[in-house]
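Milestone M4 deliverable, item 7.
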Amino acid sequence: MIDITFLLATSMSPLLAVTPPPQDQTTTYIIMGGATLFIVYTMMRLNKRKTKRDPMDTPFQTRSLAQQRSTERQFEALLVEFSEMSRKMTAQLDTRSAKLEALINDADERIARLETLNQQAPPRPNFQMPTEPPADRYAPATPTPDPIAIAK
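Output delivered:
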């Protein structure tokens, strides 16, 4: 009977065809397991090389002086930009608060003027609403002719 591993070995490589197939099945499983582990290990190493590494993983002392100065310049530029932005925001808030104060003062002046005018005005007459409308209000102005007389 022909062993399947022998057929696979002969079809895969002529080098493997020279070696006789192992007679013990455990040896075959050990070799297949070792080959699988080798392939998995190789694939993991290749995958690890392709991933981007975080620059903060390396210690700060291992960076070059040029890199440190570049980072320092970036932080200084960021601080300058932040201070300019906060100055602009403060100026906008001051402007808006001044406008609000002017509007509040204008409203207070109008309220005071309305109160003085209300005190100086004569009292209003107390009008009472009629409870029922007058009866002749809805009466026609001229009497309506008889519809039969209109048809003649």
